[in-house]
Amino acid sequence: MDSLITAAARALATGDPLGALKRVALRDDPPALALRGIAMAQLGDFARAKVLLKNATRAFGPKEAVARARCVVAEAEIALVSRDLSFPAKALDAALATLEKHRDWVNAAHARNLEVRRLLLVGRLDGAERALADIDPAPLPPASRAAYELAVAGIAIRRLRTKAARAALARAGQAAREANIPALAAEVESASLVLETPAARLIAQGEARPLLLEEVEALLASQALVVDACRHVLRGEGTVVSLETRPVLFALARALAEAWPGDVPRGTLVARAFRAKHADESHRARLRVEIGRLRAELATLAEVRATKRGFALAPRAGEVVVLAPPVEGQHAAVLALLADGEAWSSSALAIALGASPRTVQRALEALAASDQVRSFGLGRARRWMTPPVPAFPTILLLPGPLPGD
Amino acid sequence: MKYSQAEILREYGPFPGADNVHGVTFDGEHVWFASGDKLNAFDPATGETVRAIDVAAHAGTAFDGRHLYQIAEDRIQKIDPKTGRVLSTIPAPGAGGDSGLTWAEGTLWVGQHRGRKIHQIDPETGAILRTIESNRVVTGVTWIDGELWHGTWEDDASEVRRVDPATGKVLETLEMPEGIGVSGLESDGGDRLFCGGGKSGKVRVVKKPR
Hints:
Chain A contains 18 helices and eleven strands. By secondary structure, chain A is α+β, with helices and mostly antiparallel strands. In chain B, the strands form five sheets. Chain B has a five-stranded mixed sheet, with no helix packed on it. In chain B, strands 2-21-20-19 form a four-stranded antiparallel sheet, with no helix packed on it. In chain B, strands 3-4-5-6 form a four-stranded antiparallel sheet, with no helix packed on it.
């Protein structure tokens, strides 16, 4: 490395991007372009940072494969932090292979970590889990280790493994403090709040109370028959019956579960399931048909018994409870589907809800305006999910892109 | 051109408090190396750090028999090793793109990293007296018994090479093992070369071929 590049890199490493820029602002050689790119990224100008890093990548010579690969990784991180998923995963893969071939283990692990975060962001939990298994966090510098542990926690939370999530968050916090980056420590702390904030409401025998994620996990492991209004499924005795695409059946199941062990009058069921004010003869006929369908779906978990005034649930074992989102508002159904942590397209949501794409679109826009959902991607590739996702530090932990160090 | 594998005789470091080795020089007794914000001296017999001077030290280091010269940003500082004071500064010929530095016969020689050049300059004014072109990135530079040597380091490939000071033609090449790079370069006056190892934080001794 040359003298000013060393000086600029030292400035960057001590959190002084302006000092770095001052030293290399007028230089267009590849290491200077890369440093300027990283400094701009740290200053929040992602668009300019991307251009500079792209130029640096192109300008490094054929003998500087590692420097080039590090620039690609930095570019990928900027794309990820700015939620731009158009970044080609292939380029990141190739950069990872180069870094491994040249035994740059730290930056290779950083690249893998980015891949895990990308998979989490697009809702591919299985893929993220597999990719995570390839990372050995032990030799990572503290900042990268914190990011890794956040990804572990993110997956554990999505998978409702709160003990594992808590442990990962504790390790992330420790690593963030070692890294001595206050912004990173703050991110870990806010991610940890997810475990202390009610994640759902429990409705049992006519009473509702908030549940922490931990309690949700315990509930799902218990004998109870859970009518899960967060994910629109019925759970019990290790079986899961999905009613995601059957909103009428789900509404009936929920009404019955809320009243358990009592029964629900036919009129109430008609009103809840069909949104009709008065039950006429045709509604009653339709209700009989839908109850028949619900019986078939529920067969392994519970019976649906006819009573004098309506119907009641009779579980095979344990009690019946409803697990509902902490807040049920106008667009609760959309939120319920998004609560599974996967990334949904609006058309998939429309199909699942039996609503028109336009209605779903409006609901998503309203939810986005109040920060309850987040989207990424553009056009047909646009996907929606619910925050918070405690897996993505939004600060940059960029690799050093310089050759010869 | 003679071509051989570099033979590493010994490694020093990494040294506490210095994670990078940029320039390297030898004052006849101690090896000095630049580590960013310090010039450090160690005893080559024991490897023990003997002292450090707090001074900006971003690239090449040299010794003229009395003073240390140290590149920092786009300047060359002349330093009194006894007091650690910067006595004067001159502009570096590569305007900050400078890497290696050595003293020979009353002038300074400066490697310009990606400029792939070696400049001979006036140590009083910084004026360029002559320039030699290399075909590789230039890291450390040193003169040994009338021979001009320089280091080159591009990713995993690094060499120590002797070049013709008149034409820049490569006369002899020592290839460093894969993954080991040469940042600074200095001879001990005999047949040992001290090589700075950049981010590895090490100073290595390479056997100079006879």
